[in-house]
Amino acid sequence: MSAGVTLHEALKAYEELAEQGVTMRVVDLYSVKPLDSQTLHEAADATGFVVTIEDHYPEGGIGEAVASALSDHPIPVFKLAVSHRPRSGDPEVLRTDEGISAKAIVGSVSNLVRALQPSYR
């Protein structure tokens, strides 16, 4: 679940993960109010866990909104978000440093799939 610039990173990660045989969904969460909780629940049911990706701090962001909407679901919600002090720089370098670039998303999702679904190769 992502929006804005991180949606494009998630779509790049989707392509790479698909080549590795990892099936996933990318949800464009362009609005947190109203939040499309039906789509969130459908995605959660289909995947078993949710990863949110946002290019700002996690507090009050997409991850918290998704976790709240799925609080009635027994699935984990993992949040990839900015954790360092803001600074200027090349956007790709900054996304990589924050763990929200396509490559970082691939690594995080691959690790989660291995940890949560032991049959993953």
Automatic annotation (TrEMBL):
**Pfam families on file:** Transketolase_C
What EC number is given for this enzyme?
1.2.4.4
Signal peptide span per the entry?
A: none
Q: Which residues form the Transketolase C-terminal domain?
A: 2-105
What Gene3D superfamilies does the entry give?
3.40.50.920
Recite the UniProt keywords alphabetically.
Magnesium, Metal-binding, Oxidoreductase, Transferase
Kindly list the GO molecular function terms attached to this UniProt entry: branched-chain 2-oxo acid dehydrogenase activity; metal ion binding; thiamine pyrophosphate binding; transketolase activity
At the top level, the lineage of the source is Bacteria
Question: tRNA processing as a keyword?
Answer: no
Name the InterPro entries for this protein.
Transketo_C/PFOR_II, Transketolase-like, Transketolase_C
Annotated protein name in UniProt: 2-oxoisovalerate dehydrogenase subunit beta
Could you tell me which species this protein originates from? Botrimarina colliarenosi
